[in-house]
């Protein structure tokens, strides 16, 4: 779901950086306060965990597979802000190590796939946990994945409004929301279900045999 | 110093490139990037093409199709988009090859420690995941069904989560025992 470099107009990604900067600053302060001196090792381990989680493949019917985003799991296990911070660092590493995503779109990807997905997952989980832990986890993670897909689709969908050249051809991503929303969101309805199931399985297993802190 | 300078120049370059829309300029800059990379160009180009292929082919093909149906021009957009994305990805991969990330962030001791620890922990987790996958494969006769693969993926992610909690505690204790936090106080 990453947006790669080169598809997003500067006025959009610079605005995203302006929005992400205070969020990152708040996240660092919040995580530092909550984790005190264990901030550095915790953040490093969380980042590594999020990075490696993205390489865990979700089997899909038909013999294919997709990969885990992992933000929902991180958010439910450690909280919204550590998940956001760790995922932002993962995006930097993925960009530098694999050329996936990119530095200009880092803020857009971090806000959509890190902060929004984590906040929605935790929020829906809190709302529904009264109906049962499983319901909270399954619906929360699914909603987090779908909301982040909607945000990515909307950001891509506004790019045609960001300018055209003299011949009328778009300067950046060419398709509007009428195309991006169904193309990106519909597959994520299924991917979100896979991710929700996997997160529920992981939390069920780790919840049963919790590691002493 | 060299790494920090490299990181700064790259940041300015990638932002600047997104303001360039003329394919001739983008093509020229791509050739310049190839010259800069020298012998590493074929390898980096291959990695960059693999990284961008899926998205670029989908976007380009979709645009060609929709513009053709509408009877509108599409050539300039396709050339511009592909040159820009390839140039940005190539530069990023070239930077990653040149850059010592740890040295580049040594202006902040905390950030430096996060990067060092993260890179080390990634190796640990990758080894754990690889062990799990090989064990799963060695115990499977033929291709496992969807349910078994789903259960295995869940166990892999669960093992990673547990390992992460243990590692965080262990690294924290290790750093404390070596006086890391006292030095910073």
In terms of topology, how is this protein built?
The complex is a heterodimer of chains A (213) and B (185).
Chain A: H1 10-35, H2 39-53, E1 57-59, E2 65-67, H3 71-78, H4 80-98, H5 106-128, H6 133-157, H7 177-208
Antiparallel strand pairs in A: 1-2
Helix pairs in contact in A: 1-4, 1-5, 2-4, 3-4, 3-5, 4-5, 5-6, 6-7
Chain B: H1 2-17, H2 23-37, H3 41-70, H4 75-98, H5 101-104, H6 109-138, H7 146-177, H8 180-184
Helix pairs in contact in B: 1-4, 2-4, 3-4, 6-7
How would you sum up this structure in a few lines?
Chain A is an all-alpha fold and 213 residues long. Helix content of chain A is 69%, strand content 3%. Chain A is globular and about 60 Å long.
Provide an overview of this structure.
The complex is a heterodimer of chains A (213) and B (185). Chain A has 213 residues and is mainly alpha-helical. Chain A has a single domain (10-208), classed as Arp2/3 complex 21 kDa subunit ARPC3 (Orthogonal Bundle). Chain A has 7 helices and 2 strands. In chain A, β1 and β2 (65-67) form a beta hairpin. Chain B has 185 residues and is an all-alpha fold. Chain B has 2 domains: 2-102, no CATH class; 108-184. The longest helix of chain B has 32 residues, at 146-177. Classes of the chains: A mainly alpha (213), B mainly alpha (185).
């Amino acid at each position: 779901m990453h947006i790669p470099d080169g598809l997003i107009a500067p006025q959009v990604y610079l605005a995203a950086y302006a929005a992400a900067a205070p969020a990152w600053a708040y996240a660092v302060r919040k995580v530092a306060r909550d984790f005190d001196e264990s901030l550095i090792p915790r953040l490093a381990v969380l980042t590594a965990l999020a990075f490696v989680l993205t390489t865990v493949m979700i089997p899909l019917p038909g013999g294919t597979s997709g990969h885990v985003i992992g933000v929902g799991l991180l958010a439910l296990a450690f909280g919204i802000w550590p998940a956001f911070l760790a995922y932002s660092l993962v995006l930097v590493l993925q960009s530098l190590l694999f050329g996936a995503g990119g530095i200009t779109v880092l803020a857009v990807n971090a806000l959509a796939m890190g902060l929004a997905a984590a906040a929605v997952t935790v929020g829906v989980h809190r709302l529904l946990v009264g109906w049962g832990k499983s319901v909270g986890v399954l619906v929360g993670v699914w909603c987090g994945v779908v909301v982040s897909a909607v945000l990515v689709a909307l950001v891509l969908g506004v790019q045609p409004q960001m300018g055209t050249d003299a011949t009328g051809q778009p300067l950046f991503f060419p398709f509007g929301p009428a195309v991006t929303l169904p193309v990106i969101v519909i597959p994520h309805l299924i991917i979100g279900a896979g991710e929700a199931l996997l997160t529920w399985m992981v939390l069920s297993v780790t919840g049963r045999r919790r590691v002493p802190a | 110093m060299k790494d920090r300078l490299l990181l700064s120049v790259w940041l300015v370059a990638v932002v600047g490139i997104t303001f360039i829309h003329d394919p001739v300029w983008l093509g020229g800059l791509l050739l310049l990037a190839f010259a800069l990379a020298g012998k590493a160009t074929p390898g980096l180009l291959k990695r960059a093409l693999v990284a961008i292929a899926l998205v670029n082919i989908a976007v380009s093909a979709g645009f060609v199709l929709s513009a053709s149906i509408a009877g509108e021009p599409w050539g300039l957009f396709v050339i511009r988009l592909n040159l820009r994305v390839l140039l940005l990805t190539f530069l990023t991969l070239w930077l990653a090859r040149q850059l010592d990330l740890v040295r580049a962030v040594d202006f902040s001791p905390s950030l430096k420690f996060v990067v060092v620890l993260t890179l080390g922990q990634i190796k640990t987790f990758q080894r754990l995941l690889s062990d799990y996958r090989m064990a799963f494969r060695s115990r499977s006769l033929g291709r496992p069904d969807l349910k078994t693969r789903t259960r295995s993926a869940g166990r892999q992610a669960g093992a990673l989560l547990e390992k992460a909690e243990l590692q965080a505690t262990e690294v924290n204790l290790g750093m404390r025992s070596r006086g890391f936090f006292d030095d910073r106080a």
